[in-house]
């Protein structure tokens, strides 16, 4: 029949497109847009397969229910295949910390706290910008005798193993913190430094 012939032609085209996207690595290269393109092509391919199967069932077995059944099965498969993409996109939109970072982050923050001259850290925030890029910010308070550039290099090295591609580190001396706090009240400076000393992992997990 005409519909069956057209379906065969569409299937060949979609298979070629699928192979093309697969070979150039766009189906799993970490780019959500390209993964969406690949899933769209696969949905078209499954649609052609469904039309062929339902047409054969109707032609040779007179199974009129084959068409809606194939359509339902294809819809379920497409929906299930998009769940990982939706999860990945939602993590990026919600600025959630990747699991790979959270697994090694406690040890890395412990190394930061142990760096000579570091009095504490505040507001550690790490989030997934894209599927292949993780960003992070952290505020470090150092003693007046510590070298800022040396501390910056040490903190960067400590957080390097967290697979953070873009990291912003703010370094401030204790003297500067106390001076800034004295402008707003002595109790504010003391409270701020106390929070630095008592920073816990739950601050990171709440990101």
Question: In words, what does this structure look like?
Answer:
By secondary structure, the protein is of the alpha+beta class. The protein contains eight helices and three strands. The protein has a three-stranded mixed β-sheet. α2 runs antiparallel to α3. The radius of gyration is 27 Å and the shape is rod-shaped. 18% of the residues are buried. Mean pLDDT is 77; it is low at 185-195 and 197-207.
Q: Report the span from N to C terminus.
A: 58 Å
* Helix count from the secondary structure assignment: 8
Order of helices and strands: HHHHEEHEHHH
Number of strands: 3
Adjacency order of strands in the biggest sheet = 1-2-3
Main beta-sheet strand count, sense and barrel state: 3 strands, mixed
Amount of beta strand: 5-15%
What do the pLDDT scores average to?
A: 77
Please state the structural category: alpha+beta
Describe the global form: rod-shaped
Low-confidence stretches: 185-195, 197-207
The amount of helix comes to 55-70%
Taking all Cα atoms into account, the compactness measure Rg is 27 Å
């Amino acid at each position: 029949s005409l519909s069956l012939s057209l379906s065969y032609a569409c299937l060949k085209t979609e298979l070629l497109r699928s192979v093309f996207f697969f070979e150039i690595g766009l189906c799993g290269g970490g780019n959500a847009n390209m993964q969406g393109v690949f899933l769209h092509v696969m949905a078209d391919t499954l649609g052609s397969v469904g039309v062929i199967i339902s047409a054969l069932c109707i032609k040779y077995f007179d199974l009129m229910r084959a068409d809606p059944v194939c359509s339902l099965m294809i819809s379920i498969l497409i929906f299930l295949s998009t769940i990982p993409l939706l999860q990945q996109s939602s993590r990026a939109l919600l600025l959630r910390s990747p699991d790979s970072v959270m697994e090694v982050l406690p040890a890395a923050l412990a190394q930061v706290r142990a760096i000579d001259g570091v009095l504490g850290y505040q507001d550690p925030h790490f989030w997934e910008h894209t599927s292949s890029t993780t960003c992070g910010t952290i505020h470090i308070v150092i003693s007046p005798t510590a070298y800022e550039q040396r501390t910056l290099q040490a903190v960067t090295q400590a957080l390097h193993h967290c697979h953070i591609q873009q990291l912003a580190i703010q370094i401030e001396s204790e003297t500067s913190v106390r001076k800034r706090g004295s402008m707003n009240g002595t109790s504010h400076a003391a409270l701020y430094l106390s929070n630095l000393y008592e920073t816990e992992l739950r601050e990171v997990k709440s990101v």
